[in-house]
Fold each of these.
Amino acid sequence: MLEISNLTKRYGKFVALDGLNLHIDKGEIFGFVGPNGAGKTTTMRIICGLLKASGGSVLVDGVDALKRPDDIKRKVGYVPDFFGVYDNLKVMEYMEFYGSMYGMEKEDVDEIAVGLLELVNLADKQDTFVDTLSRGMKQRLCVARALIHNPELLILDEPNSGLDPRARFEMKEVLKNLGTMGKTILISSHILPELSEMCTSIGIMERGKLIVSGRVEEIMQKSMGIQPIHLRAMVPGMEADEAKAHVLTVLKEQPLVSGVSYAGEEYQIHYGGTEQQAAYLLKALVERNIMVSDFHREKENLEALFLEITNAAHAAQVHP
Ligand SMILES: Nc1ncnc2c1ncn2[C@@H]1O[C@H](COP(=O)(O)OP(=O)(O)O)[C@@H](O)[C@H]1O
Ligand SMILES: [Mg+2]
């Protein structure tokens, strides 16, 4: 659906996109994550035909975005990272305004707009002035208008930024609905965990390059290797100090254990194995007379994974 190859963008001497490769299948909800300045907005604006690339190629559903920007505008809906000012424009008029930009008839726009406003939970706001809507409502209105021409690819640039938790929740529900409708969605954020729940795939971008990308489950699997296992245990017939020494000895003997620390009556085990292998670790402890009262690994800590990956990328640059 979206195929970006070796995309580069220079602003003068500054390289904002440095040979970006990105592939998104139809129907995917792809989370595009990276710190501020990574190049997310630049990438999105190029895909939409709003900004010229310096090199590389972008295909949307087989159409060359760099050579045929007008055709691309019909295929793509774009929700930018800012919402303009619309003096004296009501919600329905706003939808009609955007529909007219795609050459649509007013009657058609009205009919489609009613459905879209329902989808984004703004059905009762048709006659409200746009400027008086809350920020969350404006964002959802922006999603509705980006869908007015029924695009195949919807691009959202940090749609959650500046929203309160309630508004974020509502935005998430809207996006999930779009996913079930089969739209392909590219959504950016500088906060990784925010995207993990609603995306099917994730790409992490830094300094104009994609440094990791894949299905959410695969990335989660990788993140487990860096999350410690928390263990609480005692050893029958041993005093606390003796028990601790025994547990530490047993743990350090186990394969795939790369480190153990003890704090607050809890052991933290750095373990490189899978969930299944961790079950054998637990079995080994029990067989060595260790009674376990808690054994769990923090899951879904994508933030930690993000830091790990970006730190590794920095280290690689410092020590080439
Ligand atoms: N018009 C511009 N002129 C010069 N530099 C720009 C311009 N637009 C963006 N940049 C720079 O390009 C880099 C990527 O920006 P951007 O794509 O907005 O990143 P993101 O959306 O990930 O925060 C940043 O370092 C930014 O300062
Ligand atoms: Mg941006």
Amino acid sequence: MTADILIVGGGIVGAACARMLLNAGRSVAILERDFIGGGATAAGMGHIVVMDDSEEQFTLTKRSRDLWDALVPQMPPELEFERRGTLWVAADEEELAAVSGKQNYYAERGVPTELLDAQQLAAAEPALRPGMAGGFLVPGDSVIYAPCAADWLAQGATVLQGQAVALGDGVLKLHNGDTLSASAIILATGAAAIDLMPSLPLKPRKGHLAITDRYPGAVHHQLVELGYLKSAHSSGTESVACNIQPRKTGQLLIGSSRQFGVTHSDVEPHLLSQMLNRALHYLPLLAEMNVIRTWTGFRAATPDHLPIVGLIPGTRRNYLATGHEGLGITTSLGTAELIADAILGRPGPLSPSPYLADRFPECHV
Ligand SMILES: Cc1cc2nc3c(=O)[nH]c(=O)nc-3n(C[C@H](O)[C@H](O)[C@H](O)COP(=O)(O)OP(=O)(O)OC[C@H]3O[C@@H](n4cnc5c(N)ncnc54)[C@H](O)[C@@H]3O)c2cc1C
């Protein structure tokens, strides 16, 4: 092996780590069992969003969004980056009242937002069902085509085809019996990280998505019902929420569902229909649109909804970058910065502590 740094997994997180370390002048190889930008990265929605479930989540999503923004001038068109903004839709006065406090929270942390009343909401998104109470607009949020973004971020790294089957300190064993060593190994295999580290507190959380034919101009912002937060937090086995994303192609990407305890990737008609009906409730126009493809993917969920990033306890050369659940496209760049700072021993803008693996005592190699 000729690279200093070996990254296992070429999803958006591994690719972002590669980019950050290449920029710091290190040589980087990515070991990938399938292809760059596959896995959850190919299944996800590509919404780059600042979220406020916790202070730590806000900090990481905001820093990551800033890092994405800094890359915009260099991005090739196939990344389909668009600053759509997130429009959180309040279905009733109770939801609208609850969202008012968010505006101060975001403003105090340097993220501009706007509260929209019913009329302003209808003007911003005429296709929404009449009678919605209002909205909370985060104009700086954006949308990207994640598989192409991963491919682009990984450029300059050596890509090795193969599957890791065992992890030692600075050493990897491959399925074909070969071993690879490096001064640092980053485990960025998403939900599959438990295959190499069974002690990780990760659970796969299945999600369905659907995409329509092209209807340019039908929707302008990423539309998310405020109930989405309930769905994202729920620890129940199944939940759905309306989440609609306009793509640069004119297509609408429709989510989202969340399921624990299911490991097969089949599209499940009962859940798909619940999800589409939820979207239809917010956007009646969908009834006249064709859905042309449906699929599923798995988010890597942690008990506290924060990713696991940093040195693996008990090792000197192994790092973890996993557990990003439904925010890994967004937080890939913030994660990569944390990892690069840790490997290079340099101070960074974020405190690494909230994301370290040692917050889970059971987590070891
Ligand atoms: C339905 C759905 C919607 C989503 N929407 C969004 C969204 O709008 N915004 C957002 O920010 N996030 C979203 N996410 C989450 C996001 O997609 C993930 O958090 C992110 O893609 C995780 O990236 P990753 O690189 O960690 O994992 P992955 O993309 O899964 O990549 C891991 C890679 O590791 C490889 N690999 C696994 N095991 C091995 C091994 N042993 N040896 C070698 N290679 C291996 C795999 O082949 C894969 O390529 C969504 C997820 C889903 C499922």
